[in-house]
Amino acid sequence: METVEINLEEQFQARIDADISIEPKDWMPDAYRKTLVRQISQHAHSELVGMLPEGNWITRAPSLKRKSILLSKVQDEAGHGLYLYSAAETLGTSRDQMLADLHSGKAKYSSIFNYPTLSWADMGTVGWLVDGAAILNQVPLCRTSYGPYARAMVRVCKEESFHQRQGFEIMQTLCEGAPVQKEMAQEALNRWWWPTLMMFGPADADSPNTAQSMNWRIKRFTNDELRQKFVDMMVPQAEFLGLTVPDPELQWNETKKGYDFGGVNWEEFWNVVKGNGMCNKDRLGARVKAHEEGAWVREAASAHAKKRARKMATQAA
Amino acid sequence: MQVAPSDTSALNAYPPELRQLLFQYVLQLADTSLILGHRLSEWCGHGPVLEQDLAMANIGLDLLGETRSLYQYAAELEGQGRTEDDLAFLRIATQYRNPLLVEQPNGDFADTITRQFLFDNFHYHCLVQLRASADERLAAIAEKAVKEAAYHLKWSSEWIIRLGDGTEESRQRLDKALASLWRYSGELTTPTATEKALQATGLIPDYAALLPKMEAHLAHVFEEATLPVPQGVFMMTGGKEGRHTEHLGYILAELQYMQRTYPGLTW
Amino acid sequence: MTQSEWPLWEVFIRSKQGLDHKHVGSLHAADATMAIQNARDVYTRRQEGISIWVVESTHVHASNPDDAEAFFDPANDKVYRHPTFYDVPDSIKHM
């Protein structure tokens, strides 16, 4: 028996190495399945919770155009959550179970959403910076080894491309507007820059699972690689906007053809992960409330569907 | 029957009084879809299940799209150089012309569905007729919106049926929602002086003619939902003439926050 | 009472007239009517479709990956089923 198991593992890894997708009914190691469920559901939860900080500004959007854009963007996030939950469900875990894990605090979501959105410029910054960081994470996942996850990500990335642009457009409008608007933009960048850098996760040295995930091609770049890429991509955009990146150590390094930048405050990062961010309690509280208050609606629809099915069965008989 | 102008410059072909009436009416339609769209957007991120969160946002987006077309047209009719955003964000509560129904709070899902159904049943049937308006702009806006409203009505009708003929709890909640919202339904088909004047010109539908279709659809849905149709309820009116419930003020406080705090800026 | 969650449905969309319905993903719904409407709201927000099929996921029967070799490999050596297997002189047209 032992040898058969080893063979399956080897065959599995050989398929991964040959970039052949793994599909739901294929054999896979338990650890691969578990890691995927954790990663995909965490990603889905992030979309779901991520609706809240921006949803916070839909009713206060400053123009009808912005209101429509913001509502459609936040709605897209619901859609992305849904695609991802569906992908995770193909691995045999129900959405109900995943939501229960989110609500109990067992499952995590991206810590960035535990920061408050305090001004309209935050809608620009979240779109431009946070979605920009998310896209860097997500684009490689379109080629991730698990088929349903990769296909969900293709759809997500396609839709996500307008999100970053609308954020940048908000920033550009603010930066080209009145001084008070430019200040608003700078103040938002000051608050969001460092938390956004934290989105890529702990430094490689402190990320023990990275090697296995890269080996399984669930992850395709390390946290630090992506962080560097992000800084190199964003600094020129901030310069274009005339905004100052709040990092005195930021400097172009000609040798590595990239920016050197200051150290991330990992104490803050772990604090927020542990639940001590400004909004952890509010965000999770809002999700639990929506789910609990929706219970009777879901039950009513199920009950009605049963009644209707019975009625049709009687009519057919 | 009034001969309607086909382009903006030809709006001058309307006698000033008629043009003013039409402005008031288009503004009323715009305010209505704005306020209801705003209410629906409050659900975003808080729906009872992810799929319905998306559904409500879709309806909200349809209404906001209709809102923009209507304000743009209203601004042209007014001819004072105001923009869609000026009209949406820079008027005081008593100048808003939406019926009372659409400003009522979201409450629970039963309240939202009831408000939506009562509105959709009017909105859809009104748009069907408005497509034939001699005013080409209004007819064109209705032509686009009627497809959206047909879907909204389907969606809200089915939810009325599910909640009415679902569980004991859903039925109780729906009964409660109807008890509080039914009294706002009559205003939709009670014409104001502005509407009467426009109905007389044939530019907008006669609500009396819509009623049989609305009542038939409602009777069908309520029968499926095993709900009795409420009778003899006193109908509240006033919204379409600027006399609102207290809820509108809070909506406007949020809606207008940015425009009022930072006057005259572009976003 | 813990109500079990709404069943899962597989969604198939025809993107335009003349093309097949293609599997696009799944969603939850209490019944078929709701499943179609949810599919419309979830999967056609950007004009992705003109027709929708939904099938309750429990009704989909799939081939077993363990049978893949027995099922699909035997077709590998039937190259003569493909037109490119045959040499046709260049001067022959319309074939």
Radius of gyration of chain A: 22 Å
Total number of helices of chain A:
11
By DSSP, the count of extended strands of chain A is 2
- Say how many strands of chain B there are: 0
- Proportion in β-strands of chain B: under 5%
CATH class descriptor of chain B: Mainly Alpha
Strand content of chain A: under 5%
Question: What is the total domain count of chain A?
Answer: 1
CATH architecture of chain B: Up-down Bundle
- What's the end-to-end separation of chain B, in Å? 42 Å
Oligomer: heterotrimer
Helix content percent band of chain A = 55-70%
Which chains have the largest interface?
Answer: A-B, 47 and 49 residues
- CATH class descriptor of chain A: Mainly Alpha
Organism (chain B): Hymenobacter elongatus
GO cellular component, one term (chain B): cytosol
Pfam families (chain B): PaaA_PaaC
InterPro entries (chain B): Aromatic_CoA_ox/epox, Ferritin-like, Ferritin-like_SF, PaaA_PaaC, PaaC
Question: Could you outline the blueprint of secondary structure elements for this entry?
Answer:
The complex is a heterotrimer of chains A (317), B (267) and C (95).
Chain A: H1 2-17, H2 30-55, H3 64-89, H4 95-104, H5 121-138, H6 147-175, H7 179-198, H8 210-215, H9 223-241, E1 251-253, E2 258-260, H10 266-276, H11 280-316
Antiparallel strand pairs in A: 1-2
Helix pairs in contact in A: 2-3, 2-11, 3-6, 5-6, 5-7, 5-9, 6-7
Chain B: H1 16-41, H2 50-78, H3 84-89, H4 100-103, H5 109-130, H6 136-164, H7 168-181, H8 193-201, H9 207-224, H10 247-255, H11 257-261
Helix pairs in contact in B: 1-2, 1-8, 2-6, 5-6, 5-7, 5-9, 6-7, 6-9
Chain C: E1 8-14, E2 21-28, H1 32-43, E3 51-56, H2 68-72
Antiparallel strand pairs in C: 1-2, 1-3
Write a concise keyword list for the protein shown above.
heterotrimer; A: about 325 residues; two-stranded antiparallel ribbon; C: about 100 residues; alpha+beta; Ubiquitin-like (UB roll); 3-stranded antiparallel β-sheet; PaaC (chain B); Phenylacetate-CoA oxygenase subunit PaaI (chain B)
Short description:
The complex is a heterotrimer of chains A (317), B (267) and C (95). Chain B is mostly helical.
Structure description:
- With about 325 residues, chain A is mainly alpha-helical.
- Chain A has 11 helices and 2 strands.
- Chain A has a two-stranded antiparallel sheet.
- In chain A, strand 1 and strand 2 form a beta hairpin.
- In chain A, helix 2 packs antiparallel against helix 3 and helix 6 runs antiparallel to helix 7.
- The longest helix of chain A has about 35 residues.
- Chain A is globular and about 75 Å long.
- Chain B has a single domain, classed as Ferritin (Up-down Bundle), CATH 1.20.1260.10.
- Chain B contains 11 helices and no strands.
- Chain B is globular.
- In chain B, about 50% of the residues are buried.
- The N terminus of chain B is likely disordered.
- Chain C has one domain: Roll (Ubiquitin-like (UB roll)).
- Chain C has a 3-stranded antiparallel beta sheet with strand order 2-1-3, covered by helices on one side.
- The model of chain C has no long low-confidence stretch (mean pLDDT about 90).
- Chains in contact: A-B, A-C, B-C.
- At the A-C interface, helix 3, helix 6 and helix 11 of A face strand 2 of C.
- Chain B: It holds the Pfam family PaaA_PaaC.
- Chain B: One of its GO terms (biological process) is phenylacetate catabolic process.
- Chain B: This is Phenylacetate-CoA oxygenase subunit PaaI.
- Chain C: This is 1,2-phenylacetyl-CoA epoxidase subunit B.
